[in-house]
C-alpha cells in the first residue's frame, strides 16, 4: 500500500490498547492493521510540550530511515476518528522471544546477554535486568542515543521472528536537553562498530538536506540543532556513553 493510501484511506478503529499511558487504538486501513494515537488523547507532561508526541513519533521514523536499520516501523501523521494523530504499521512479534528480561540475580546466562542493573522484586528477591547482546539491539541503542529517547522500556522493544528488533513508542524523544532513559545500558563504554559509525554518518549527512527539511514541521529548530550535535558528539567519542545528570538513567516502570 502506498503512502498516499495509508494517509487518505478510511481508518476504522477495531480496539484499544488499555495498557498505554496515552490513548492508543488498533485500527485498519483497507485491511492493513495499524496503531493509531490521536493527539487529543495525549496526557500532559511536565518536561515535554503538550500536543506534539505524535510529531515526535513521526520524526523518530524519519531518523530511523536515515540510519537505514529499520528500527522504527513505518509511522506517519494523519487524521482519524478522534482527530489528527500518528499511525504506525502493526507488528506481529514472536511471543517466544524476549529481548529484555528480569531474572534471578544468580541466574545470569554465560553468553549472549548483557547485564544492566540489579534490584529487588515485589517479594524482596534479588533480580537482574538483562538484555540481548545482538547487533539489532546495539543498533537500537545507538538510535536511542541520537534521538535522545527518554522512555526505552523493555516492552517498547518488539522481538520479531527471525531476530529483527523493532522499537516503538517514541513520543518522548528529541528533547533539546539530555533525557536519555533506557534499559539498553549493557554496552557501557564499549567502542562503536564501523557499521554503527556509518549509520551515524548517514544521519549527519541527511541532516544537511532532505531530513532537516522533513523534520522542520515536526520539531523545533533548537531540537534539530541538538539532534545534529548528538550525532557529532557520539561520532567523535565513538563509544557507548555513560549515564549523565541527576535524572534516573532507566525509565520507570522498566516494562
Q: Under the CATH scheme, which class of the largest domain?
A: Mainly Alpha
Shape field: globular
In DSSP terms, counting alpha (H) and pi (I) runs of 4 or more, how many helices? 6
* Total count of strands: 10
End-to-end Cα distance: 33 Å
Main β-sheet description = 5 strands, antiparallel
Strand order of the largest sheet: 1-2-3-5-4
Rg for CA atoms: 18 Å
List segments where confidence is low: pLDDT < 50 over at least 5 consecutive residues: none
Tell me, rounded to a whole number, the average pLDDT: 96
Total domain count: 2
- What portion of residues is helical? 25-40%
- The share of residues in extended strands comes to 15-25%
Structural class: alpha+beta
CATH architecture of the largest domain: Orthogonal Bundle
CATH fold name of the largest domain: Transferase(Phosphotransferase), domain 1
Protein architecture, described:
The chain has 255 residues and is of the alpha+beta class. The chain has two domains: 3-94 and 134-237, Transferase(Phosphotransferase), domain 1 (Orthogonal Bundle), CATH 1.10.510; 100-131, no CATH class. Helices cover 27% and strands 21% of the residues. It is built from six helices and ten strands, in the order H-E-E-E-H-E-E-E-E-E-H-E-E-H-H-H. The chain has a five-stranded antiparallel sheet with strand order 1-2-3-5-4. Strands 6-8-7 form a three-stranded antiparallel sheet, with no helix packed on it. Strands 9-10 form a two-stranded antiparallel sheet. The longest helix has 17 residues, at 221-237. It starts with a helix and ends in an 18-residue tail after the last helix. The relative contact order is 0.15. The mean pLDDT is 96.
